[in-house]
Amino acid sequence: MTLLRDLSLLWSMLHVIALFLILFEPRFSWRTTLTVAFVVGGTLLIANILLMYQLGNGILMSMAFFTCTIPTLILFFILSKYRDGRFFFLFCMSDTLSFWVMQITNLMDRMAGDTYIVLLVSRLILFPLVELLFWRYLRRPFLELQRRLDRGWWLFAVVGAVYYLLIMFTAIPVDAPMPDASGVGTAFLVMLLMPLTYMTCLLSLWRQMKMYENTRQMELQRRDYHTLCQKMELGRIYRHDMRHHLSTLDGLLQQQDLDEAQHYIRSLNGGLEDLAYPVQCANSALNAVITAYLVQASNAGCTLRVQVQTPDQLPFEETDLCVILGNTLENAIHACQDLPEDMREIQLSLELTENRRLVLFVKNPCPTPVHFGPDGLPAVPQREGHGLGLQSVRTVSEKYGGLFQCQWEDGFFILQTVLMPPQASTVKQRQVNRVTTAVVALLASLLLINCVPAVADALESIPVLGPIIRVLDLRTYTFHWNNTDYSVTQPQITGAEEPNDASDDFFAEMEEKFLWYAGQRYKGYVGIDADYTVLRDDETLLILRFDSTINVGGSVDYTRHVVLDKTSGEILELSDLFPPGEDYVTPLSAEVLSQMEQAVAAGEGSYYIPGDFWAESDWFRSIAPDQDFYLDEQDRLVLVFEEYSVAPGSMGTPEFTMPAGMGILPTG
Q: Is pLDDT above 60 for 470?
């Protein structure tokens, strides 16, 4: 019993780390991180296993805090990219949610009778299921939260630490007695409030991030509005001064000073160009962003060379496209401001391909080599608002299942990203959803079958579905129960491989039946006795009789015979006693039925035959082609039936001796 408990504990400890790593963002490469975590974590795991076997399972809620939790916290704090409230919030959340799963499974096992079977099975299912949900629905938005927000985490980390302490004080250890109603109620309230609190924390952080993004968008719009106001004011001034310009030109022409007049006209054209709004692409939103940054680049002394090939309608959200263009162009302009004027040139290429993929290419000068972190982004100082632009671009690329790449080459910083059309992403998403739904349904069914015996019993009674359910019922494969007794005496016959194989098959079948009774119905209070008897051993035949009795309040008997032909060295089947192709089933069945009727008429027993009070569905109709049998000392054929197969249990294992001549003993 304790083996199942210990296995469930070790499985849980491994998945505490797995759940943490799903949402973890490392400081180093994943290869380095996982190697160090494997070495140090494996050492801690071995140390805790040794302590568990020396001091007992109770260390989970006492010493494990110092032998496992604190060392793990220090290890991953060193490996973490973030050294603030983000790390501690994640650590507390992953640990407490893992303990939450452990407590839920513990209570399920208590309700099932403290067998530890439900404890192990439910943890085998629930931990991977929780990790699948985290990976599918929480990982990407949580990583985005960590990257975009660097403030406000400490408060939520304190909330996680408080729940950590509450779990420690209110948890009910596996082997501890159940507390009173007040203790159970307190533990239940903590278990109920904890996931709700974490959901509230994450939603609050998400709203904070959205507010930050909205602020950035409003700032961009404010810049555009300011630029537009400047152009409108400049146009008003030009219109006001137009009569003065015309008068000046009229005077120059009257003086026939054509060169000065042309020079004056060119200066006017230069000013009028500042009032123009060049159309860069057909999409109005993209055109507005590009135009705004053209002005910003011009004010910074940069040349922005634009090549855009996009229609007016794009298969992507305009806000996402504005995020990509705005962040990349803003970063490129900032990178050019400190460079010599002859180097301030930015290249922008934006194209929607024939297969509706949007390809963005931005190239700007960058004389200083750029170092990239493990996430593929430039390594920048950790300060508020810095280095978030490219993270937003990558997030949008990931949203559309696209590609994102930054690189430094020959004094230039190059950014490339490709957005996949949402239709393809939707199809892929639907496929993933189908797979996820199938996995969840399978795991839920497996959990239901193994945790609710009544459901398993009902399903196993269905003819076709029954064998499948017995395979899924993991209790069938349990090997240790309370108050069990498994006693087997198995023969080993020297120089006879066939009987030994038959013996192994019989005892394997009995073990399976024993496990089924013990695990499926009687929760361990089962005994089995298996033995053998030599019925005949002469120059011709060796006949063994195997008997097994399973005690489950009452008892169930099983019998099997092995007939070895010593002349050929082979085990005889019933068909071997008759000429090839002969119908032996019909005459033998008729003889068995005749003997049953005679016994019933003489009051010597009861059999499942017509004329008695047994239901028609139970009537004996025919023997099996491979019916169990043996040959007595007079070489007469004796057919043997299992208990309850052709008669009530009070008749034991009925035997019917066939008349002499029915069945021919083969001769070697």
A: no
